[in-house]
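Lecture 7 notes: from sequence to structure.

We start with a single chain of 151 residues. Read the sequence below before looking at the structure.
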Amino acid sequence: MMICKDCGSDKIENRDQQLCASCNKIWRKTRQVAPQEPAPPIKKRSDIMTKMMAIYRPKAAKFLVGKRCAVFPDQKATQVHHMYTRSIDDFADEWAVNNNIPYLLDERFWLPTSDDGHKKITEDSKWAWENGFSFKRVGDKMFQKESTATQ
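Now the structure, written as C-alpha cells:
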C-alpha cells in the first residue's frame, strides 16, 4: 500500500509522483506557472536627472574654486548648499524660466559650504533660515506650526 509523500493519505492518484488527488492537483498547478524573471532594479536617478547632473557637476566645481565656507569662513568650501531647493522642475522667476535654469542650476541660490557647514545648515534648518543660509519653505514641518499659529 502506497501513501502520499506530501500529506500521508493512502488514496494515491498519481503513482509516479506518489501523490493523493489533492496533492496531485497542487503539483500540476505549480508546473503550469511559468517562473517569473526578476524585476529590473529601480534606477537611482532618472534619465533627466542624470543629464542635469552632468551639467551641474562641472558648474558646481567651477563655482567652488577659491571660495571659503559661508558658515565657517576658516574652512575651504567643498560643497554647494542649495538655499531653496534642488528641483529640476521649478524655476525661481521669469528670468530663470526664459533662460531654462531650474533651481538645481541657478547659482543665485547656491551657497559655498564645507562638510561641517553643510551639516550645520541641514541639521538646524531654523537656525539656517534665521541666519540667511536657507530660505523658508512652506513644506518644512517646523514652519507649518508657526504659520497655523498666526492664523
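The helical segments are 21-32, 47-64, 94-98, 115-123, 125-130, 141-150. Keep this in mind for problem set 3.
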